[in-house]
UniProtKB/TrEMBL annotation:
PROSITE patterns: GLNA_1, GLNA_ATP, GS_BETA_GRASP, GS_CATALYTIC. The lineage of its organism: Eukaryota, Viridiplantae, Streptophyta, Embryophyta, Tracheophyta. Homooctamer. GO terms for molecular function: ATP binding; glutamine synthetase activity. This is Glutamine synthetase. It catalyses: L-glutamate + NH4(+) + ATP = L-glutamine + ADP + phosphate + H(+). Residues 106-356 form the GS catalytic domain. It is found in: Cytoplasm. Its EC number is 6.3.1.2. Its main location: cytoplasm. It comes from Medicago truncatula (Barrel medic).
């Protein structure tokens, strides 16, 4: 008799050309990922060849009950690390039956910005450092922490090794490999300053693909923690007090910044970001005011600043960039629960299209 695990791991390609496509989208809160699966007659590698689909938007706070149909438009395909074989994950955005993007569809406006000739010509690169916290399912308290209590103070946990310092490494490594399998450009992982907190990095990714890859990586992380019986939190300050918050530092460069003389372009771009500081902060994630306090490697939310190698600044420029006279910079303001479509496209719009 087959075990459940045997059935889960069945290789469909041995008996059928059909594949399973998991359609994934962002729900009404802007952070709740939703998904459902459908059978397709054969392998697909081009999202434009995938059928549109619909779902009940009234159950995701995206449509009223009397007119609840929302349409999924497939936009990006990744290999499915859970079902494997030719099965796929499909990142979708959402529209009304009339073809109008829903207010929660942040990809639509981002795609317009990235397709602008002045933006496309600059080939914007992004590297996003996604921090997150692993929580014990029944208590919503960080993994490895004593129930209702606290571990020793911060210090030994950042990139730490050992059973008393690193909590959840099996989940982190499973996620790392699953993302590589899926075709996500994940570039690394590390333990963070607060115990139970980790980070993965995606990039360099060009334009809209940075948002697609972060959402796909978040989906895979949610699925792995579901299997492990652990909760993943993207709250920017999950534990009040003398503990680091969680951000999504966004590294950015353009073609002009990466070429000789690029440092001057970088300084002009940072100046523009400073002029629109309040607009960016408003779009950089919910609850970010609890994180951006001027402590724990953050700048105060109300004050824009930048500096070389300064992790207490809003924007950090690396020593290598200063030395080489070209390169990239890091916007340290986005919170861990930011929408990557919003953040990446807004940085491009401010630095490449906006006229002060």
């Amino acid at each position: 008799m087959s075990l459940l695990s045997d059935l889960i791991n069945l290789n469909l390609s041995e008996s059928s050309e059909k594949i399973i496509a998991e359609y994934i989208w962002v729900g009404g809160s802007g952070m709740d990922l939703r998904s459902k699966a459908r059978t397709l007659p054969g392998p697909v590698s081009d999202p434009s060849k995938l059928p549109k689909w619909n779902y009940d938007g009234s159950s995701t706070n995206q449509a009223p009950g009397q007119d609840s149909e929302v349409i999924l438009y497939p936009q990006a395909i990744f290999k499915d690390p859970f079902r494997q074989g030719n099965n796929i994950l499909v990142i979708c955005d959402v529209y009304t039956p009339a073809g109008e993007p829903l207010p929660t569809n942040k990809r639509y406006n981002a795609a317009k910005i990235f397709s602008h000739p002045d933006v496309a010509a600059e080939v914007p690169w992004y590297g996003i450092e996604q921090e997150y916290t692993l929580l014990q399912k029944d208590t919503n308290w960080p993994l490895g922490w004593p129930i209702g209590g606290y571990p020793g103070p911060q210090g030994p946990y950042y990139c730490g090794i050992g059973a008393d310092k690193a909590y959840g490494r099996d989940i982190v490594d499973a996620h790392y490999k699953a993302c590589l399998y899926a075709g996500i450009n994940i570039s690394g992982i590390n333990g963070e300053v607060m115990p139970g907190q980790w980070e993965f990095q995606v990039g360099p990714s060009v334009g809209i693909s940075a948002g697609d890859e972060i959402w796909a990586a978040r989906y895979i992380l949610e699925r792995i923690t579901e299997i492990a019986g652990v909760v993943v939190s993207f709250d920017p300050k999950p534990i009040p007090g003398d503990w680091n918050g969680a951000g999504a530092h966004t590294n950015y460069s353009t073609k002009s910044m990466r070429e000789n003389g690029g440092y001057e372009i970088i300084k002009k771009a940072i100046e523009k970001l400073g002029l629109r500081h309040k607009e960016h902060i408003a779009a950089y994630g919910e609850g970010n005011e609890r994180r951006l306090t001027g402590k724990h490697e953050t700048a105060d939310i109300n004050t824009f600043s930048w500096g070389v190698a300064n992790r207490g600044a809003s924007v950090r420029v690396g020593r290598d960039t200063e030395k080489d006279g070209k390169g990239y910079f890091e916007d340290r303001r986005p919170s861990s629960n930011m929408d990557p479509y919003v953040v990446t496209s807004m940085i491009a719009e401010t630095t490449l299209l906006w006229k002060p």
